[in-house]
Amino acid sequence: MPTYNLKVNGEKQVVEAESDTPLLWALRDNLDLVGTKFGCGIGQCGACTVHIDGTATRSCLLPVSALEDKEITTIEGLSENGSHPVQQAWKEVDVPQCGYCQAGQIMTASAFLETNPKPTEEEIKIAMNGNICRCSAYNRIQRAVAIASEKIG
Amino acid sequence: MATENNSNFSRRGFLKASSLASGGLLIGFNLFTACKQKAEMPIDISKLNFADFNAFIKIAENGMVTIFSPNPEIGQGVKTSMPMIIAEELNVAWKNVVVEQGVLDTENYTRQVAGGSQSIRFGWDALRQTGATARQMLINAAAAKWGVSASECSAKEGVITNAKGETLGYGDVVKEAALLEIPENVALKEPKDYTIIGTKAINVDIDEIVSGKPLFGLDYKEEGMVYASVLRPPAFGQELESFDATAAKNISGVVDVITIGEKARNLLNSEKPGWSVKLSSSDKVVVIANSTWAAMKGKKAIKAVWKEGTPLESTEAHDKELVKLLDGKKFRTMRSDGDVKKAFAQADKVLERTYESPFLPHNCLEPMNFFASVDDAKVRLVGPIQTPEDLATAVSTMLDRSLEDISVKMTRMGGGFGRRLYGDFAMEVAEIADVIRKPVKMVSSREDDMTTGVYRPAIKYRIKASVKNGEITGYQLKEAAVNGNMYGLIPNFFPAGAIENYQVDVASLKSNITTGAWRAPYTNFLSYAEQSFFDELAEVIEKDPVQMRLDLLQKVKGTKDDKIQYSPERLEGVINLVVEKSGYRTPKEGVYQGFCAYYCHNTHVAEVADVVMENNKPVVKNVTVAVDCGIVVNPLGAINQIEGGVVDGVGHAMYGDFKFKDGMPDSSNFGTYRLIRNSESPKVATYFVENNLSPTGLGEPTLPPAGAAVSIAITKATGNRIYKQPFTKNMVAKEIIG
Ligand code: FES
Ligand code: FES
């Protein structure tokens, strides 16, 4: 089986996997980074969102073979101990219900706030629209992104 | 009248205490029953025995309180709210309380809490009693140490004080407390003295969730574990005839391809199939691989030939059959008051309407998955399941193993919504592990999850009411549902008792499509049908829809009918509150409001939805909710549940659509199956009716009224009533019809 050199959360990792293996499964099965979740496998739910060179990306459709030399950040690497402003806001607002979608929501929100640190309510809704929360915690997700934006600013 | 504050909790012998070898006091108790005489308390914290007790409290020598409960969390917040109740009566500071879910190596988890709206309601008495008794034990121990009477001592935030003002921490007396007799009939606190209940506590698992720690079934892993992907019949009614696994076996990472199904079939044909009836009776092809991806790829490469076992069904045919049932006479009457036929015959006016809904998949965001390991000594099962006891029993019968060999460990669940009440997927992995004798995790793809699921049945209601001299004199509700829907208590919900001639009839269409509970089972669609009907009925009798409800409720007050489930006073309370808070009496230009009030899952709820027209389309902007759930244990968690229930209700009523053709669902993933998204979600404003009644659950009761409130608001906005879900596919805008 081929091997790939990935840089995940600042560390070099060697992954032995077939070239078409999505990053999602390489993270989960090979590297034991299970914070990135599987929801649909077709890019529709956002549960698998990670940052590739700082951009929020769906890891379920991204083959490991396309990722050498890229900076991959997962929820585990977003901050040392849950101290990222978005994580802090998520705690403050007590966003999660079942919690399964939340890593993906947080990764989408944190990348979004990098590009637009002072978004309007409407911009937040549109930015977060690709992340399904089956428990429908959308009201709190919107509020937490707004609070995180204040923390950053 | 159903009383809300009844307590049948046995006070005698409901908890046991012991001293831990490592120091500290351990108390074991059960939520629903007294503990067994012979139940033994461990002295080693790593050996908590959840077969005899379903929860433990440890008070350490440093005063820290740890609550151990194997209760899984589905997302309803019980893992936070239940310990709050214990801590309240125990008089400890919430910050000194830690909650731990069970202990991982426990052999037998039995008598688990099923989770859901029921947990809080049933646990309320037991949790308070336990906390209060533990507090008294510690006070008694301190009093003995000081040589004073316990009645002179009091406890606050984990510190006991006597009349002289001397103090002892809980941790200082744990050793002594374990040796004293367990006090009986300890007084509970008055709600006005609560310091923890009613405060906002953040989800106890929050740190793990926001930092991506392994919590869920899908995250579970063991050394040497392999992955399994299961190919099930693509259509309900089909069975496996043959398959070719050559291509699959050539995929790198695929270890083996096997079939399962025989053991499950034997169980299905046995006397006690239980919920294993949710299993398909067909053989299934299983791809075993050393990664999830290889297993999924392998499954796609299997070439299978399917044959028809039972006829393949379609929504089109169901629709016809359900209408036939409604037109026919094959009903079972579930409640009948007076004489509806006579009322209809003597009426000035009769209104009759039919409401229709599709099947609905659960779509838990975490797809079904489970771990199993089977060897000669043990059968170990790990994963997200709401009914571990049923699973252990079913697996023990299926694999012909003694119940003692089986252990079930529950993980956090990425959503339940009723799906994880059924353990068909866990049975499959048990059968797989029994064949391969290796630790294995079965992972469903979204497509597997959505197309081989258990569904909310398709249902049709026909409701008929008679009006005489401006009064509602008769009401008849007929239900026709695929595999049946309504159960015993529902016909005693509103408007039962308020209308003299009243009847509820049900009919069932037998189908090979698996159906079952779905969030707010039985009422999730019924509420929309009935409440939409009331709104139209109010128009017919030319009454304000709110006033019509209030007038009907007047007639129920003081009823001697103890079958009636709802309280007219409490329903009136939420109606008045929602009318006030939503501005229903002072409508804004361009905002169309839909009102409804509903009782289900022991909770009274009223909702007002605000709809505006944007680009000729109705958009749900706000929902105001008034809830009477008794004492609100954790407002932060409660509001989360309420908001989730409302938005979920709006989403499925607006978009939820799921049809069958030739036994096959028409959607298999989120590309075609539409779930509500962030930008479509209304803002929810929640208000509680304040009282000191026992708490009731909130995971379900705000969902059913949401669809109703929205449909009524859309009717006002568009001028057209909607009789079918999902609304987006069945509404006609005013502008379009001119
Ligand atoms: S799992 Fe990648 S978008 Fe759903
Ligand atoms: S919290 Fe359950 S899916 Fe979002």
TrEMBL record, chain A:
Keyword Iron attributed: yes
UniProt keyword annotations, A-Z: 2Fe-2S, Iron, Iron-sulfur, Metal-binding, Oxidoreductase
A UniProt-annotated Pfam family: Fer2_2
Any one GO MF annotation of this record: 2 iron, 2 sulfur cluster binding
PROSITE patterns noted in UniProt: 2FE2S_FER_1, 2FE2S_FER_2
Domain 2Fe-2S ferredoxin-type: 2-78
CDD domains given in the database record: fer2
Metal-binding recorded as keyword: yes
InterPro entries xref list: 2Fe-2S-bd, 2Fe-2S-bd_dom_sf, 2Fe-2S_ferredoxin-like_sf, 2Fe-2S_ferredoxin-type, 2Fe2S_fd_BS, Beta-grasp_dom_sf, Diverse_Oxidoreductases
Coiled coil regions in record: none
PANTHER family, A to Z: BLR6218 PROTEIN (PTHR44379:SF2), OXIDOREDUCTASE WITH IRON-SULFUR SUBUNIT (PTHR44379)
Protein name, entry field: Isoquinoline 1-oxidoreductase alpha subunit
Protein source organism: Maribacter vaceletii
From TrEMBL, chain B:
Gene3D superfamilies: Aldehyde oxidase/xanthine dehydrogenase, a/b hammerhead, Aldehyde oxidase/xanthine dehydrogenase, molybdopterin binding domain
InterPro entries (alphabetical): Ald_Oxase/Xan_DH_a/b, Ald_Oxase/Xan_DH_a/b_sf, AldOxase/xan_DH_MoCoBD1, AldOxase/xan_DH_MoCoBD2, AldOxase/xan_DH_Mopterin-bd_sf, N-heterocyclic_Hydroxylase, OxRdtase_Mopterin-bd_su_IorB, TAT_signal
Domain Aldehyde oxidase/xanthine dehydrogenase a/b hammerhead: 211-310
Pfam families assigned: MoCoBD_1, MoCoBD_2
GO molecular function: oxidoreductase activity
PANTHER family the UniProt entry points to: ALDEHYDE DEHYDROGENASE (PTHR47495), BLL3820 PROTEIN (PTHR47495:SF1)
Annotated protein name in UniProt: Isoquinoline 1-oxidoreductase beta subunit
Organism per entry: Maribacter vaceletii
Lineage summary: Bacteria, Pseudomonadati, Bacteroidota, Flavobacteriia, Flavobacteriales
